[in-house]
Write a structure and sequence with these properties.
The protein has 402 residues and is of the alpha+beta class. Helix content is 40%, strand content 23%. It has helices at residues 2-8, 15-29, 37-44, 50-57, 63-78, 141-144, 147-152, 164-178, 190-193, 196-205, 226-231, 264-267, 302-311, 313-326, 336-368; strands spanning 84-93, 103-107, 112-126, 129-137, 185-188, 208-213, 239-246, 249-259, 273-281, 289-297, 378-381, 384-387. The strands form 2 sheets. Strands 1, 2, 3, 4, 5, 6, 7, 8, 9 and 10 form a 10-stranded mixed β-sheet that branches. A hairpin with a 2-residue loop joins strand 7 (239-246) and strand 8. The longest helix is centred in the last third of the chain and has 33 residues, at 336-368. The radius of gyration is 26 Å and the shape is globular.
């Protein structure tokens, strides 16, 4: 934890704020049953939550700067050249009407319409681990069209309405332009994959993607819906593949994929990438089919696309771990700035735990790797055995030689 906190401590200009932030981060990481203001303060040895409330709502420090430092930390500890950036949103159930961005809206977390806030997140996933690396609070139009309500929640006047897809696109651009994270792929569910502007942004940046889309997604060429294109696929086009391990073992589906024709106006005369359509069909419920659009280099295989499509689940696992272990959803702040500060510090704790897990796994793998066996002096040739010893150095006296 100290290594991670050392990255961000400089964002607080005052020593007392640094210590308070350190205590908050340590408390989020500690064995606190409910990580709200009172219980975190009690764990830290404070008389009450006032100090932590000031840290989140009134103190002067830059949460976006902490986010940038967090991304450097994740790049150092989990970074790989084939890293995947995953975008998705999650809900935070809330009571009342004064918390920034709260209203009755659909929450995928709850699976129904609830009174909640919605956060749009980006996670970074590699073979070494996964961590949340960026966040934006979704503000419905009921908020952005009510200046008085926004002022009461300390929402900046410059913050206008943006769809979840637009928030995700802004985060992706931020990571690609200013982050040290090595990104080879971007993936997300159909709420983000159907955003044509996002796909075009990634193509212009030369970044590969596998993005889920609805079954009604229109294909530029051939001019048909994606579900109808796969309805005409021959039986031989479907192959059983695993897109990664889940809690109950390999996540196997029947997959089909096909390259799309080149679009001259976008791709030029000698394109380096191709577009694909991809579909996964449930083994137990064959009528359940998920569809994807993909963009990848020529040498990409179907197995590569399937692997990236399966990486979408990494952000769900990150949400679950960050909420269960780091108090991501257990905050008691209502103001806009307080949400960003708590969420960012909880992300820092989650990234620390992810880095520790990766370090432990790599150390364990090294310790369990058997040492290479010395070549046996017994060599077989033409049906008979021969004892073969390396030649002795003539300047060295052999052991036990009189």
């Amino acid at each position: 934890m100290e290594t991670a906190f050392g990255r961000v401590a400089g964002r607080c200009s005052r020593v007392d704020l640094r210590w308070r932030m350190r205590e908050y981060v340590r408390s989020l990481m500690g064995p606190v049953q409910r990580k709200n203001g009172w219980q975190l303060a009690e764990y830290a040895g404070h008389h009450g939550p006032a100090g932590f409330q000031h840290l989140l709502n009134g103190a002067r420090w830059d949460a976006d700067g902490v986010r940038d430092d967090l991304q450097h930390y994740v790049a150092d500890r989990l970074g790989c050249e084939d890293g995947v950036l995953v975008v998705d949103d999650t809900g935070f159930l809330k009571k009342g009407t004064t918390s920034a961005g709260v209203q009755r809206q659909y929450s995928g977390t709850a699976g129904r319409t609830e009174n909640c806030q919605i956060g749009v997140f980006a996670a970074y996933a590699t073979s070494r681990g996964r961590a949340l690396v960026d966040r934006e609070l979704y503000l419905p139009k009921s908020w952005t069209t009510d200046p008085g309500r926004c002022q009461a929640a300390r929402i900046p006047s410059s913050r206008g309405f943006a769809t979840k897809g637009e928030l995700a696109r802004a985060m992706i651009l931020r990571v690609l332009l200013a982050s040290p994270l090595p990104i080879a792929w971007v993936t997300g569910d159909c709420a983000y994959g159907q955003e044509g502007r996002m796909r075009r942004t990634l193509e212009e940046a030369g970044v590969s993607y596998v993005l889920a889309v609805p079954k009604s997604q229109q294909l530029p060429a051939p001019f048909t819906r994606i579900d109808r294109a796969f309805a005409d696929a021959p039986k031989q086009a479907w192959e059983r593949r695993s897109c990664g391990d889940g809690a109950k073992g390999p996540r196997a589906y029947d997959w089909a994929a096909a390259r799309l024709p080149v679009i001259d106006v976008f791709d030029g005369d000698d394109p380096t990438h191709r577009r694909w359509i991809l579909a996964s069909r449930s083994l137990t419920h064959p009528q359940e089919i998920a569809y994807f659009l993909a963009y990848a280099p020529h040498e990409t295989t179907v197995g590569d696309l399937v692997r990236v499509a399966g990486t979408r689940w990494a952000i769900e696992e990150a949400f679950q771990a960050a909420k269960n272990e780091c108090g991501l959803d257990q905050y008691e702040v209502r103001r806009y700035v307080g949400w960003y500060r708590h969420i960012t510090l909880a992300m820092l704790v989650h990234a620390t735990l992810a880095a520790l897990t990766a370090q432990t796994n790599e150390k364990g793998a090294a310790e369990t790797t058997p040492p290479a066996l010395s070549p046996s002096p017994w060599q077989r040739s033409d049906g008979s055995w021969t004892l073969c010893f390396p030649a002795q150095n003539p300047t060295t006296t052999p052991p036990n030689t009189p």
